[in-house]
Amino acid sequence: MSIHIHFIGGGNMASAIIGGLKTNGFEMSHITVIEPDAEKRTQLSATYGVQNLDTYVENLDSATCQNIIVLAVKPQILQEVCQNLAKKISRKSSPLIISIAAGVQCDAIASWLGGYAAIVRVMPNTPAQIQAGVSALFATPSVNETQRLQAEQILSAVGKTLWLSEEHKMDAVTAISGSGPAYVFYLIEALQEAAIKLGLTLDEARLLSLETFAGASLLAKQSAIDIQTLRAQLTSKGGTTEQGILALERANTKGIIQAATEAAARRANELGTLLGKG
What is the pTM of this model? Predict the structure, then answer.
């Protein structure tokens, strides 16, 4: 039985996943994107060769094709999308629903789908656009092992995957990996500005800041040594790095970063509750 993936929404994350699937050899004729924006439909067709529709088809699943439906719309319109979708799917073929809409919990999605609960909730992040992302996944009990594997394969096309056993951990994931790229960009921005104040040109500051973050991250990823030890190895007694680290410690930088992630997690929880009320 063939697999057909229907993307409802053709924005950046949907495009990133489709691009990753293409790179991994998935048959593009087995992907349909339902997207009301004509410009986005044209771009997706030209770039990937996928099928495009401007509205829902009458039946998004059938006995002759195993269907996966990816909800790739903004959280604010997910309720309306799901309520329309509930009229189009048949429970006979048990399509897998994958939601990448941030914050909205599986119970709310199932309710809007009229009680249909074969749902995998996913929190990807923006580096998925270059297939270097990390996605956390949570499956409801209605999702079978084959569907779990299918969800993992789809998200693996854009980076690493991590299964969560408890859905409430999604708030922490949102705060760390979902919002995390913005924190990294903020730190790169700060290092770049500091470099300019020390007399380097913008081009020099940009190159040194970007390559330092990229190289250090790659070293940490590939090294068998833990992060704390790697940092300690660079911090020679009485040296320049030690003075920099002491300044960061005096400013309570770790505490500030922890406060930032806690604030992001709280907001994720608040938005999930708000969006799920319907």
Answer: 0.91
**Cβ(35)–Cβ(52) under 8 Å?**
yes
pLDDT in tens, 50-86: 988 877 665 565 555 578 999 999 999 999 999 999 9
What is the CATH T-level fold of the domain 178-269, as seen in this structure? Answer: ProC C-terminal domain-like fold (1.10.3730)
Superfamily in which the 2-172 domain is placed by CATH: NAD(P)-binding Rossmann-like Domain (3.40.50.720)
Residue 232 half-sphere exposure toward CB, CA atoms < 13 A = 5
Q: Where in the chain is the domain with CATH 3.40.50.720?
A: 2-172
DSSP string computed for 184-244: HHHHHHHHHHHHHHTT--HHHHHHHHHHHHHHHHHHHHH-SS-HHHHHHHH--TTSHHHHH
CATH 1.10.3730.10 range(s) for the chain read 178-269
* pLDDT, tens digit, 9 for 90 and up, residues 102-147: 999 999 999 999 999 999 999 999 999 999 999 999 999 999 999 9
Q: Please, are residues 66 and 3 in contact by the beta-carbon 8 Å criterion?
A: yes
Instruction: Report the distance separating Cα 227 and Cα 204, nearest Å.
Output: 27
Sheet order of strands, 159-163 included: 51-53, 31-34, 2-8, 65-71, 96-99, 119-123, 133-139, 159-163
Number of neighbouring beta carbons within 10 Å of residue 202: 11
Alpha carbon of 162 to those of 135, 136, 137, 243: distances in Å? 6, 5, 6, 37
**271, containing H or E segment:** helix 253-276
d(CA 63, CA 55): 22
